[in-house]
Amino acid sequence: MNPQAWWFVARGAGLVAYGLLACTVVGGLLLSTHLLGRRPAPDWVLDWHRFVGGLALVFTAVHLLALLADDYITFSVPDLLIPGVAPWRPGALAWGVVALYLLVSVQVTSLVRDRLPRTVWRRIHYLSVPVLLLAGIHTFTAGTDARNPIVAMLLGGATAATVLLLAFRLPVRSR
Questions:
Q1: Secondary structure of the chain as H, E, C letters
Q2: What pTM was computed for the model?
Q3: pLDDT tens, residue by residue, 46-62
């Protein structure tokens, strides 16, 4: 087995998690802005949104488990769950840890959405945008692929789409 296999799994899972997160945030913004039409979205669209968000969390867990299994840079569980304590690029990893906690809060509250007041759920769900921003900062500052043009296009495209949709969403929301 390649001695760098876990490192490749960690990198790949992290990038897939970011891509899935970008898809679910952009998809959620498209749904909420009604750019795709005013009629209610079919149930499968909302199911897709929930499924992709859940997959982002699953691939984030794979990312963390692969980092624990990798022996090139030795991480402990506290290194990956407490912001700022990792011996390797602690600031860069802290962005990812905070994004993880926000992502978990969004996912858990979405699972119990029917038991929460709508305004509470909505405010927590708005944290999806900072999750994407923090995960992007983490990817850019901690990732070894930051100079890769495909990764740069992923980060730039997700950021541009999110900013564009937010620019459309905010005036719609204030009406």
A1: CCCCHHHHHHHHHHHHHHHHHHHHHHHHHHHHHCCCCCCCCCHHHHHHHHHHHHHHHHHHHHHHHHHHHCCCCCCCHHHHHCCCCCCCCHHHHHHHHHHHHHHHHHHHHHHCHHHCCHHHHHHHHCCHHHHHHHHHHHHHHHCCCCCCHHHHHHHHHHHHHHHHHHHHHHHHHHC
A2: 0.91
A3: 889 999 999 999 999 99
